[in-house]
Amino acid sequence: MSLDSETLARFIVALRRFVDERLIPAEAEVAETDEIPASVVTGMRDLGLFGLTAPEAFGGLGLTMEEEVLAIFELGRAAPAFRSMFATNIGIGMQGIAIDGTPEQKEKYLPRLASGELIGSFALTEPDVGSDAAAVRTTARREGDTYVINGTKRFITNAPHAGLFTVMARTDPAQKGAAGVSAFAVERGTPGLSTGKPERKMGQQGAHVCDVIFEDCRVPASALIGGVEGQGFKTAMKVLDKGRLHIAAACVGLSERIIDDMLDYAVGRRQFGKPLADFQLLQAMFADSKADAYAARCMVLDAARKRDAGQDVGLEASCAKMFASEAVGRIADRNVQVHGGNGYIREYRAEQLFRDARLFRIYEGTTQIQQIIIARALAAEARSRAGL
Ligand SMILES: Cc1cc2nc3c(=O)[nH]c(=O)nc-3n(C[C@H](O)[C@H](O)[C@H](O)COP(=O)(O)OP(=O)(O)OC[C@H]3O[C@@H](n4cnc5c(N)ncnc54)[C@H](O)[C@@H]3O)c2cc1C
Predict the structure, then answer these.
(1) Distance (Å) from CA 184 to ligand 1 centroid
(2) Within a 13 Å sphere around the CA of 221, how many CA atoms are in the beta-carbon half?
(3) pLDDT in tens, 363-382
(4) Contact yes or no for 289/261 (Cβ under 8 A)
(5) Is 229 considered catalytic here?
């Protein structure tokens, strides 16, 4: 652990207080206006949330994976749009450079990402390239000391605010798969880079996604992350392994918050002369929800600890992401049911959290993609046992 246990405990308490006193009370306003108030963003910066995982040498807190998931269990209790604001900086929008960047790239970008002065986005998905991420069509053609990037990236979180994009582009058109893909750090303001109109989404209002368009966008060769061509897909997968544990932790936090909401409502509301909490058919929902959330928490912590111990946790990260995101979907759905008609009404948070939770099963690899990763890893183990 990079923090001693007392400092970590104090930090977790501070995060819980920030969530309870600043984030949850602002949820309705954010859902209505689709904007996170500037004062809340300043509060996030002051707490160091944009630099939770950046190495200490670059101004971050350098949290281990276990510490990160413990922090996200707390922060995940608030509506997910808040987490999205700083999450690309500590996750997918920064990790490519932190894991595989050259010393110059780290020096140039990590301190400003860690402070939140610069927002980072991760641009892999394209209009025709989603789950089959290795099929990237955006191209980066080498010309002298530069690369010329052409293509469109779709649904890029925080792109409307980002100052820096980690962009996966094909440097070798002869290689159709992963081997032809490289990663680039591209700054906003580079001629030829533009962003589209923010999408109108089902949920998570306050978090913004849009297209990122590259039209003969010329970047210096020094923008190639790690300085080596053909490593971009590997970089993206390393980023996503870590990102999936982070997302799973966010699902745990939201699950636990929703269970609290569910029970608060059920002990207060009476029907047939009794609190809802006394009805056994609803008690089954509470119990199933708690077991779901507890199992997800244990899975995330176990995988995080294994990652910190240096183990490859690709399979565990997929298990955790799949289970925790499906679990929060079930829990958010049960919460609407426990709220009855009120569960369908905007004034109560149940319907918003139900819509917010839906995204977790889709981004950073859908449930089906996690199933494929898990099943392939199991088959590889079986072949190896059989000597095949
Ligand atoms: C709000 C939001 C934010 C996002 N943020 C980012 C971001 O910051 N950066 C980024 O790069 N991307 C981002 N994405 C993109 C996201 O990661 C993709 O939408 C996701 O990976 C799925 O890709 P797709 O939408 O193209 O769906 P598709 O790949 O077209 O999949 C459609 C359906 O088919 C299933 N499917 C696909 N292939 C298979 C298969 N082989 N076997 C079985 N089923 C399969 C999928 O599971 C899914 O159910 C974001 C998306 C959203 C909605």
Answers:
(1) 21
(2) 8
(3) 999 999 999 999 999 999 99
(4) no
(5) no
- Whether this prediction's pTM lies above 0.90 is answered by yes
- Within 8 A by CB and 6+ apart from 103, the residues are none
Q: Is the CB of 123 under 6 A from ligand 1?
A: yes
Could you give the residue ranges of the DSSP H alpha helices within 269-366? 280-308, 314-338, 349-358
Element (H, E) at 237: helix 232-268
| Cα 386 from Cα 332, distance rounded (Å) | 43
Determine if ligand 1 sits within 6 Å of the CB of residue 360. no
Mean pLDDT on 232-261 = 96
**Which of 27, 256, 316, 364 is flagged as catalytic?**
364
What is the reported pLDDT for 293?
98
Q: Is 322 in the pocket of ligand 1 (CB under 6 A)?
A: no
Task: Calculate the CA 366 to chain-centre distance.
Answer: 13
Which one, of 200, 205, 154, lies nearest residue 355 by Cα? 205
Q: Please give the C-alpha separations between residue 216 and each of 123, 124, 261, in angstroms, as whole numbers.
A: 17, 18, 50
Q: What share of the chain is helix, strand, coil (3-state, %, to 5)?
A: 60, 15, 25
Give the DSSP H/E element, type plus range, for residue 211. Answer: strand 209-220
**What residues have CB less than 8 Å from 145, skipping those under 6 apart?**
220, 221
What is the Cα–Cα distance from 276 to 339, expressed in whole angstroms? Answer: 10
- What separation in angstroms does the CA of 110 have from each of 17, 88, 98, 102, 185? 28, 13, 7, 11, 12
Cβ distance 74 to 10 under 8 Å? Answer: no
